[in-house]
Amino acid sequence: MSSPFDAELEHGDLTEIEVAWPDQYGHVLGKRIPARRFLPRATGEGFPFCDAALAWNAVAEVQGDARLTNWGTGYPDVYAVPDPATFRRLPWRPGAAHVLADVVDHHRDPVRTSPRAVLRRVVDRLAALGYEARVGVELEFYVLNADGTPLQDGLHAYSLEKANELDPLLAEIGALEPFVPVEGVLTEYGPSQVEVNLAYREALGAADDAFRLRYAVKELARRNGLLATFMAKPFNGQSGSSAHLHVSLWRHGEPLFAPVDGRESDLATQAIAGVLRHLPGLTLFGAPTVNSYKRYEAESFAPTSATWGGDNRTGAVRSLVETPEASRFELRASSADANPYWAVAAVLAATVAGLEAGERPPARGAGDLYADARRLPATLGEAIAATRDDAVLAEILGKDAVHDYAVLAEAEWTAYTTEVTSWETDRYLRRA
């Protein structure tokens, strides 16, 4: 009997296949499977792993307060089932391939807390309304020496000279396709900070690409004796790293955000209205760590307010009215440390909410939007509270999944707020 993997395996040159899936923070988990052992499980029950991996925090500490898996459930196996559409050869390891997996339980049902399943749920909700979302992701990161110090100094956004100094790494990133469809690589505002633009495509594929890009960048940096970090704000006084999400809706190959008399379509404004209304609640999914909120600073190109405008980089939502195919909105609130599946799912869930409610956004802002009083959550604690207060988002994303995600975030926040830091002892030990 043939399988969807036969075309890739028939050449006989593959020796190993990585089966990969994300945890809640977007870390790349998985197993390395000898190619000769891959097919029976890939086309059968899948590859088992302990479901505690879907209930641990940013540093892999299992949190027993999760609803869908905990000490009371005994942390049973779940199964990683490879998605044939995601099978790719690894550019940096000849003879090896990589495939993304969906996670199912013993009954073959999707595990509701699996980030890929959460996004599929929202994509299906949009499809039920008659829409397909297309998403383009821009990811920023710092390239550092192995000891964590920047390779460069000064501000050199768009500098080809500084980009060339980061070769061969940047050249290798630019040549990642077909593993990841890279559209452009450039230097960003911080020293040795880089941005990668990914191809605009359907939502699940866009999240897959962003997930793989982070994996590829970190691996290629390591192989070059460097360290790449997607931490949101690794350095005081320097630019933070974002994950900008460009979103539009389509039906049967036709763009539905096509401008009307040079302005946004009604559908586009409803989507933007939903994102703005639910931005406090969705912020947690695009800014998942304590550090994420240190990126939100005035006059930093990161937003601080729940505002929107036209081609304006001072608000949270930037509406780009261009050709029919290129018209879209950009959510600028997500940071590079976000799990791309959760970040994309959250903005699309807010889009669904706006469409279902037929909302209209407030008047579009102009000029400097940093002064606007409608503030984004300023800390992880505020974001957790806003998420727990947003019943509409929870219903669209999945109540159990949102509950468990908030539990992990709460553990991060508690760990941070109870930690005595060197800043405190340096500041107060000799003065108190």
UniProtKB/TrEMBL annotation:
PROSITE patterns: GS_BETA_GRASP, GS_CATALYTIC. GO terms for molecular function: ATP binding; glutamine synthetase activity. It is an enzyme of class 6 (ligase). The keyword Repeat does not apply. Keywords: ATP-binding, Ligase, Nucleotide-binding. The keyword Amino-acid biosynthesis does not apply. Its EC number is 6.3.2.-. One of its GO terms (biological process) is glutamine biosynthetic process. It comes from the Bacteria. Belongs to the glutamine synthetase family. Residues 12-108 form the GS beta-grasp domain. It holds the Pfam family Gln-synt_C. It comes from Actinomadura macrotermitis. Residues 115-432 form the GS catalytic domain. This is Glutamate--isopropylamine ligase.
